Amino acid sequence: MNYRVIFLVGAIFLTLSFCTTKKKDKNGLSLTSPEDIVNIHFYLDQNGQPGYKTTFKKNVMIDSSSLGLVLSGEYSLDKGFEVLNSTETSFDETWEQPWGEERFIRNNYKELTVNLENEAGLKLDIVLRAYDNGVAFRYVFPEQEQLKEFEVMDELTEFRMADDHLAWWIPAYSGNRYEQLYTKSGLSEMEKVHTPLTIETKRGFYISIHEAALTDFSSMVIENRGDNVLKCDLVPFSTTDPVKSYVTAPFHTPWRTIIVGEKPGELITNYVNLNLNEPNKLDDISWIKPGKYIGVWWEMFINVGTWAQGPKHAANTGNVKKYIDFAAENGFDGVLVEGWNYGWDGDWMGGGTTFDFTKPYPDYDVEELSRYAKEKGVYIIGHHETGADIVNYENQLEDAYQFLEDHGMRAVKTGYVEHGDTLPNGYYHHGQYFVRHFEKVIETAATHKVMIVAHEPIKDTGKRRTFPNMVSREGAKGQEYNAMGGNSADHVTIIPFTRSLSGPFDYTPGVFDVKLKTMPNDQVKTTLVRELALYVVIYAPMQMACDLPENYEGHPAFEFIRQVPTDWETTRVLEGEIGEYVTIARQERDTDNWFIGAITNENPRTASISFNFLEPEKTYKATIYKNSPDTDMINNPTGYEIDEMEITTDSRIELQLASAGGAAIAVYPVE
Predict the structure, then answer these.
(1) What does the angle CA 63 – CA 64 – CA 67 come to, to the nearest 5 degrees?
(2) For a 10 Å CB count at each end of the chain, is N or C smaller?
(3) 178 and 322 share one domain
(4) Domain of 353: which CATH number?
(5) Owning domain of residue 419
(6) Residue 266: how many other CB atoms lie within 10 Å
(7) How many CB atoms lie within 10 A of CB 53?
(8) Which helix (H) or strand (E) holds 472?
(9) Predicted local confidence at residue 349, as pLDDT
(10) CA-CA distance, 504 to 462, in Å (whole number)?
(11) Are residues 349 and 230 in the same domain?
C-alpha cells in the first residue's frame, strides 16, 4: 500500500479546534494534554523573559525554567517581551510507519502558539505541545524586516529539576563521538552531556530529555548549572567560529522534548519524538525494505583480515563471494563490504588519507561481485568511510551515489571516524555544519534509492519519518568495542532506555565465538543466548549477524537469527529496570508471530515472562533458546539449551538468566 495513501487514511481521525485570545498580562498560559495527564504552563517573568513549567499527574516534571535566545550584534531574544496573541489547537491522527518498531502510531496532542514581541519590536513565537506522555516546544522566527539573517550565539532553554534526580548519561565534548559507556549518577555529578538524557525522578517516574526534527541547526547538549538546573548548550560551528547557528528567517528551531513514563519501559514505547517530525517526503518508498545482513567487517577487528591492502586484505573478490554464498543460503538480504576502495592505506582516521568512493582496490572486482550477488538474490551494502573529511566526501557525493546505484547497492554504511570532537577541517562533529552535511547525504541517497546505515552520525532525532531511507545509525558504543577492550556487561541493559530512545541503533549483535579464539587475551562480556536476544531487545530495521560465517555454520542456535524479522507490527516491554534487565516482545508485521528477548547485566536473575499479549483462544508453539544451568559469562559463555512447548495467553514461564545472560523465544501460532 502506498505510504502517502495510508497517511491520508490515518488523517481521517484528525480533529482541530481553535481559540485565539489577546493577552498583555504576565499571568501566563496553561496547556493540558488530551487526557489531562501532562500540563505545561507558559509565563513571562518580571523582566519579560519567557519561561515554562511542566507537571505529570500533578507532580512537577520540570520546575520553573527560562526560555530565550542570545543573538550576535544588537539584538537579543531573552527579555522585554509581551504576549501579543496566543492560539490553542488540538490534533489527533493515526499514521502508519512504512517500517518500524510500531506499525500504527497515534499522534495526539494539544498545541499552544504564543506570539511575542520585545521592546525592540522583534517578534518571536514559541510553540508548545502537550502529549499525554510528554511535552515539546520550539522557537519560531517569523518573517520580519529587522531579523532576516542572523547568528544564534546561545540558547537559554533550561530544564530545572525538582530534585537531584538519578541520571544515565555520556559526556559531551570529550571525544569519541557518542561512543562512551554510560555513567549512572545524580544530576549534580554531571557536567555537559549528550542527549537523550534519561532521568529517574525522586517521585518514581522517568523522563528523557532530547530534541526532535534537528534540521539546519546546531545539536543540543545539556549543561549542569548546579542547583538542579540543566541548560541547553548548543555545539559551536567550528573551533575558530563560536557562532552556534546561522539562521535565515522564517525559521524554526528543533523541538526540545521531554518524554515521561511511570515505568522505564514506557519510555521505550514512547513515540513523541518521532511524531514531531514531518511526514514522509519521498514519493516512492517501495525500494526501502528492512532486512538482515552479514559482512566483511568483524574479521578486521579480530585480526583475521585488514582494511588496507596487503596479504590479509579482506575485501577481495574470493572472500566476498564466500559471504555472498552464505547470505544466499541463509536468507540474508545484504553483504556489507568494508575496505573495498582506495584510502585505507595509512593513517586514515581523522582525514589522514583521502578516500575515493568510486575506485576499488585491484583485488576487488566490483562488476563481478555485483553480478554475482544479484544472481544469488542478495545485494552488496556499500561502505563510505570518510575519515570525517566531509569536504572530500561532498566533492564526490553525486558520483559516489551514482556508483552505488549503478552496481545495485541498495544500502550504504557511512562512517565519520575522528579521535576528538571536530572534523579534520575544524568543524564540530555535532555542530550545524555537520548537521547540514548529514541532511545533504540523506537526500542525495534518496534520489539514488539508497538506504543509509550511518556510523559516527549526528544523533537521531526522528528524521526517519521524513526520509524513510535513513534506516539506522550507530551513535553509541557498539559491538566493535568488544574487540577493542570490551563493553561492560551492563551496557546493553542501559542502551534500550537511553541511546535507543532516539531511534534505531546499528549495534551489530550476533557474536557466537564469545571467547574470541583469534584474540586469546580478550573475550566479549556476554553469553551466546544474550546475543540472540539482542535482535529483539535492540531495535534496528537492518540487523547484522556480525560473526564469521564459519562460526554460524551448522550451529543450532543460528536458527533464531535466521528466523527473527526486523520489521514489527507492535512492541511490548514486559519488564525492565535501567542497567539491570529488560524483556521485550515484538510481533512480526502482518503475522501472528512473536519474538521475545530477555537480557540481564552481570547479575544472574530470573526472567518472568507472561504471554498475556497473545490472542485468546489460540495455541502457539514457543521455541525457547536459554542459558544452560552451567552457563557462565567467564567460564562457559556459549552454554545453551533449546526447549519447545505449547503456550496460550494464560501461560507464564520463568527462565534462569546467567551472568550477562539472556533468553530468546520464537512464538508461532499452531495451525
Answers:
(1) 125
(2) C
(3) no
(4) 3.20.20.70
(5) 291-567
(6) 16
(7) 18
(8) strand 470-473
(9) 84
(10) 10
(11) no
The cell numbers describing 576, all together, are 525492565
pTM of the model: 0.95
The answer to whether residue 584 is domain-embedded is: no
158-162: average pLDDT? 98
CA distance 109 to 91: 5
On whether the CB atoms of residues 450 and 468 are closer than 8 A, the answer is no
Distance CA 560, CA 509 (A): 13
Relative to beta strand 158-160, strand 542-544 is unpaired
The number of folded domains in the chain is 2
Task: Please indicate, yes or no, if residue 313 is contained in any of the structural domains.
Answer: yes
Q: 40 forms bridges with which residues in the sheet?
A: 31, 54
Residue 470 CA to residue 206 CA, distance in Å, equals 28
Cα separation values, 65 from 127, 150, 161, 166, 261, Å: 16, 25, 9, 19, 21
* 98 and 230 both lie in a single domain: yes
Same domain, 334 and 217: no
The cell numbers describing 606, all together, are: 530470573
Q: Which amino acid is at 540?
A: A
Q: Is residue 96 part of a domain?
A: yes
For 195, the grid coordinates are 542527549
Catalytic residue among 200, 474, 480, 588: 480
Show the beta-strand stretches assigned E in 299-344. 334-337
3-state DSSP assignment of residue 83: strand
Cell digits of residue 583: 524483556
Give CA–CA dist 262/235, Å, rounded.
32
Report the first-to-last Cα separation within the chain, whole angstroms: 27
By DSSP bridging, strand 38-44 and strand 19-21 are: unpaired
Instruction: Give the count of beta carbons closer than 10 Å to the beta carbon of residue 23.
Output: 16
Question: What's the pLDDT score for residue 24?
Answer: 40
What CA–CA distance (Å, rounded) separates 78 from 69? 6
- Please state whether the peptide bond connecting residue 629 to the residue before it is cis, i.e. omega within 30 degrees of 0: no
How far apart, in whole angstroms, are the C-alpha atoms of residue 132 and residue 38? Answer: 6
Q: Which H or E run includes 208?
A: strand 206-212
Last residue of a domain, one of 518, 539, 567: 567
Residue 49's domain is classified under what CATH number? 2.70.98.10
Here the cell at position 369 is 561481485
What tens digit of pLDDT does each residue of 564-610 get? 999 999 999 999 999 999 999 999 999 999 999 999 999 999 999 99
Name the grid cell of 316.
577481495
Residue 36: CB atoms within 10 Å:
11
Omega before 250 within 30 of 0, i.e. cis: yes
Backbone angles phi, psi at 130, to 5 degrees: -120, 115
Q: CA 462, CA 279: separation in Å to the nearest integer?
A: 10
- What is the helix (H) or strand (E) element at residue 392, kind and residue range? helix 390-395
- Active site includes 559? no
